Amino acid sequence: MFGKKKVFEDLPNTMVLTTKEVIANKRGILFVSHDADDGMWQFHCGTDVDMEDAMMVALEEIIDFDPAITAIADLPLGWVAWREDITSPWKREEAN
């Protein structure tokens, strides 16, 4: 999960927001936000988010599901990252 070195500043049991599409349907994570107002991490598959499908899970579960997100562990508060597909590199920008 976190390996020998901690990648995220947040604890492994920090709750993050994702969707049933990601967890239950195994859709790849293509969009990530690190919210400026509360520090919340959000991990989505790139489709519009229906709040009925929202789920809270531990950060370690998301990392286990998609270890590639460790590449954006340093994403600053108020920034987003995205990729075209699960094999593409992450792109980043400050959120509007």
UniProtKB/TrEMBL annotation:
<protein>
    <recommendedName>
        <fullName>DUF2185 domain-containing protein</fullName>
    </recommendedName>
</protein>
